[in-house]
Amino acid sequence: MVENRKIIEMNIADTIMERPYGFRVNKRHFYLYPITLGKTYLLSRLIESLDMKADIIKANPYMEALRLCQEKKEIVCRLLSYHTLNKKEELFNDRIVNGRCQFLRKNLSNEEMAQLLVMVLTKDNTDEFIKYFGIDRERKELAKVSMIKNKKGNSITFGGKSIFGSLILPACEKLNMTPQQIVWEISFSFLQMLMADAITSVYLTDEEKKEARISNDRTFVNADDPKNMEKIKAMRWD
Q1: Structural domain for 7, as ranges
Q2: Burial call 112-126: b when 16+ CB within 10 Å, e when fewer
Q3: Quick check: 213 and 237 in contact, CB under 8 A?
Q4: 97, 123, 149 — which closes off a domain?
Q5: In terms of domains, do 99 and 131 share one?
Q6: 111 close to 59: Cβ distance less than 8 angstroms
Q7: How far apart are the first and last CA of the chain?
Q8: What is the pLDDT along the chain (238 residues), one digit of tens a residue?
Q9: Which residues, at least 6 apart from 35, have a Cβ–Cβ distance to it below 8 Å?
């Protein structure tokens, strides 16, 4: 458990720093850069065309990656090539992408390629971070509070149905950046964590707080653990 916490905290630090992973092929040095929102969309069709077996990726990612490198080497090389480029201008330059793809295909063994593929396929730890910080539980509480407030008021919300309104526009406003900067210059994991953990304050009357069953001390306790029964009983609800 302690070791797992240390690993998560190191991964969080890497996300904050947007640290790339460096590797050498012959005498050339490359980096696997953190993926941005724009690159996520750019690579979505390539990843779909790999036809990965999700159950095997979860149980034994290296075995599935090795199979893909053997059966769909050209697609894997192109995918890795995009991950080694960090500027929008390079990502949309076919000459640069094709040259990088040919070099990796010629100089990497299937085993080496599979190791890199595992890294890019399992790099997004956002869901793990959200659970680690308890943001998932706060989201449920916020949804419950919003439902109570909307039930008693006249507030109606429109929009936020696409990634434009739910992520890009709010990020632009919070970070004072242009849409293109949000899409291409910030790692997607970093962006998701910024928005997921944004501070939100909602005023509740005493009656609404009781209805929502929100604790005054804002302490989260695992109710499934019998050891926490005394803590649950001791929590203040009024």
Answers
A1: 2-123
A2: ebbbbbbbbbebbbb
A3: yes
A4: 123
A5: no
A6: no
A7: 34
A8: 677 888 888 888 988 889 999 999 999 999 999 999 999 999 999 999 999 988 888 889 999 999 999 999 999 999 999 999 999 999 999 999 999 999 999 999 999 999 999 999 988 888 888 988 999 988 888 888 878 777 666 667 778 889 999 999 999 999 999 999 999 999 999 999 999 898 888 887 777 777 777 766 655 555 555 555 565 555 554 4
A9: 43, 83, 120, 123, 124, 187, 188, 189
CB 25 within 8 A of CB 17: no
Instruction: Provide the CB-side half-sphere exposure for 55 (13 A, CA).
Output: 0
Q: Cβ distance 21 to 50 under 8 Å?
A: no
Q: Do 152 and 39 fall into the same domain?
A: no
Q: Is 213 left (phi over 0), alpha (psi -120 to 50) or beta?
A: left
Domain boundary among 103, 123, 143: 123
Which residue, 142, 106, 86, is CA-closest to 28? Answer: 106
